[in-house]
Amino acid sequence: MLRFAIKAISMPFELLKYLQPTQYFQLKFKSGEYIFPKSEFLPKTILSQIESDRQYKSDLSIAYDLSWQAIQKGYVGNAPRYNHFDPLPIPDNYRFLRKNFNKTWVFYVLILRLFSFKNPFKELGAYLNTRNVNRINYVKSALSYDAFGSFESGLLKRMPLVSVIIPTLNRYDYLKDVLRDLEQQTYTNFEVIIVDQTTLFQEDFYEGWHLNLCFWHQKDKALWRARNTAIASAKGDYILLYDDDSLIDPDWISAHLRVLDFFKADISSGISLSVKGAKTPENYSIFRVSDQIDTGNVLIKKTVFKKIGLFDEQFEKQRMGDGEFGLRAYLYGFLNISNPYANRIHLKAGTGGLRQMGSWDAFRPTKFFAPRPIPSVLYLYRRYFGKAAARLALLRTIPLSIFPYQFKKRKLLLILGVFVTLLLTPLVLCQVLLSWRLSGKKIKQGPLIETLE
């Protein structure tokens, strides 16, 4: 069983802890380093594509800002990294926030700082003196990887066996299209492993497909157990996790392998779109070190599972199991690349799957006296980031979860939504306390992570 004692939590700019309290990049690798490269060691080709901000008061702030820019713009490299960050002037912290976040969130940080009894004159002065600083979209000037266009992948030529793993639950109509798309793949050396949890199991559904197909019926409705069992049985050296309500292009598998080979990475995280032909969101449109894993579209070397174990079954019938695995892989230093070329259309079927287990939305319970958020979310936050960071994460996410989705689009409903939120606050506090107590039980029990031989 793997255990972590995470103590080294920091960020280049201190005030980031209020807005990204549970983000991968504020944790050190097991090697003792953060992801952020020391700017003086960045290649000239990279430095020429990032801008030195001389408006900071501290030279150290300038250096930290350059390092932050490099990561945000998609730097993937081996430059020496920071193993600690020194405190910076408060005005530099607010300048940084203004450059990277919406002004509403900067005001949110100010309020938290004032209620935390920080020096009000310094806080207000720094906030007001930076009010003319504009937010910057670093993705629009992302680092270029021109060599990728002409890259000939040796990995693709070797054609290793890929194991495509699909858990399914009451979605045969959608699964039919999934298997049709897999039949059309240009990359042909792959097996498909389906763990079928459907109540009325239809064995004859799997007849007649032109695929290297393996399947079995799992009576228990257990998503993470299904994935773990399938991974353990997989013959391939590359595990491609996929959902049962998705559509893909014929080059989907090859797109994953090609990016994995180009960056010499361990994980290729594809992107998910909700509508065919939809524009890729800006933050997913570039190559970058990924801070998440989506088990509906990700290729992982099997050696990663052998090193860090399988999915934590503390997340069974709940959310964030993929987030925990991604964080665990990150801490061990495995390189995870966000891959804009490996996309899928996620149909988000209204029935079956995790929806049927009652935990589709981590922060919006369907019952009045259900925990908010789902306890597995707090289990992840508290285990890796500690209680203080977990509280900050709750403070940032819970108020937004109270506000009804449909109230955000019209002004009159927006006003009504504020009153609804205030009215529900006592109930929500009870829900949060319940989640905290249940997540504490999970922490006391410890992770349920099996090893892979």
Can you offer a commentary on this structure?
- This protein is an alpha/beta fold and 453 residues long.
- Mean pLDDT is 91; it is low at 1-7.
- α8 links the parallel β1 (162-168) and β2.
- 40% of the residues lie in helices and 11% in strands.
- Strands 1, 2, 3, 4, 5, 6, 7, 8 and 9 form a nine-stranded mixed sheet that branches.
- It contains 16 helices and nine strands.
| Unreliable sequence segments | 1-7
| Percent in strands | 5-15%
For the report, how would you describe the main beta sheet? 9 strands, mixed
Q: Write down the Rg.
A: 23 Å
Helix content bin: 25-40%
Number of strands: 9
Basic shape: globular
List SSEs in N-to-C order: HHHHHHHEHEEHEEHEEEHHEHHHH
Tell me the layout of helices and strands.
Elements: H1 16-19, H2 44-47, H3 59-72, H4 90-100, H5 103-115, H6 120-129, H7 154-158, E1 162-168, H8 172-183, E2 190-196, E3 213-217, H9 223-233, E4 238-242, E5 246-248, H10 252-262, E6 267-273, E7 288-289, E8 297-301, H11 302-308, H12 321-331, E9 336-346, H13 353-356, H14 375-385, H15 387-402, H16 411-445
Parallel strand pairs: 1-2, 1-4, 2-3, 6-9
Antiparallel strand pairs: 4-8, 5-9, 6-8, 7-9
Helix pairs in contact: 4-6, 5-6, 14-15, 14-16, 15-16
Jot down its keywords.
9-stranded mixed sheet; about 450 residues; alpha/beta; 9 strands; globular
